[in-house]
């Protein structure tokens, strides 16, 4: 169950990062509210996952999902550039996440 909590927490991290971008420096109330709620949900699920997962594993996976997810949202929703070096960097992050998961005892 911890891995499910952690995965959903990572997805909510992407949601709050996107909503924060849309809030335009917290000047748009709707996007600001989504940011705050998504942050709370993300942190709460991360805390639940950390009950049984090691800190290093849980935090690395959580931030990795957020980083790669935000990267993908940036490209596919916000129209940010996708060049070879940025894609290679994202693939390296995903590789690290896979290795972290495989090396986790939980």
From TrEMBL:
<feature type="transmembrane region" description="Helical">
    <location>
        <begin position="33"/>
        <end position="50"/>
    </location>
</feature>
<keyword id="KW-1133">Transmembrane helix</keyword>
<feature type="transmembrane region" description="Helical">
    <location>
        <begin position="57"/>
        <end position="78"/>
    </location>
</feature>
<keyword id="KW-1003">Cell membrane</keyword>
<dbReference type="InterPro" id="IPR037185">
    <property type="entry name" value="EmrE-like"/>
</dbReference>
<keyword id="KW-0812">Transmembrane</keyword>
<keyword id="KW-0472">Membrane</keyword>
<dbReference type="Pfam" id="PF00893">
    <property type="entry name" value="Multi_Drug_Res"/>
</dbReference>
<dbReference type="GO" id="GO:0022857">
    <property type="term" value="F:transmembrane transporter activity"/>
</dbReference>
<protein>
    <recommendedName>
        <fullName>Guanidinium exporter</fullName>
    </recommendedName>
</protein>
<dbReference type="InterPro" id="IPR045324">
    <property type="entry name" value="Small_multidrug_res"/>
</dbReference>
<dbReference type="GO" id="GO:1990961">
    <property type="term" value="P:xenobiotic detoxification by transmembrane export across the plasma membrane"/>
</dbReference>
<dbReference type="InterPro" id="IPR000390">
    <property type="entry name" value="Small_drug/metabolite_transptr"/>
</dbReference>
<keyword id="KW-0813">Transport</keyword>
<feature type="transmembrane region" description="Helical">
    <location>
        <begin position="84"/>
        <end position="102"/>
    </location>
</feature>
<dbReference type="GO" id="GO:0005886">
    <property type="term" value="C:plasma membrane"/>
</dbReference>
<comment type="similarity">
    <text>Belongs to the drug/metabolite transporter (DMT) superfamily. Small multidrug resistance (SMR) (TC 2.A.7.1) family. Gdx/SugE subfamily.</text>
</comment>
């Amino acid at each position: 169950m911890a891995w499910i909590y952690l995965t959903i927490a990572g997805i909510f991290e992407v949601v709050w990062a996107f909503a924060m971008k849309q809030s335009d420096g917290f000047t748009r109330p709707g996007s600001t509210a989504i940011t705050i709620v998504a942050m709370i949900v993300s942190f709460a699920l991360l805390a639940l996952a950390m009950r049984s997962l090691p800190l290093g594993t849980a935090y690395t996976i959580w931030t990795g999902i957020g980083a790669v997810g935000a990267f993908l949202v940036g490209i596919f929703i916000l129209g940010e550039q996708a060049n070879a070096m940025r894609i290679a960097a994202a693939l390296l992050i995903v590789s690290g996440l896979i290795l972290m998961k495989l090396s986790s005892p939980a």
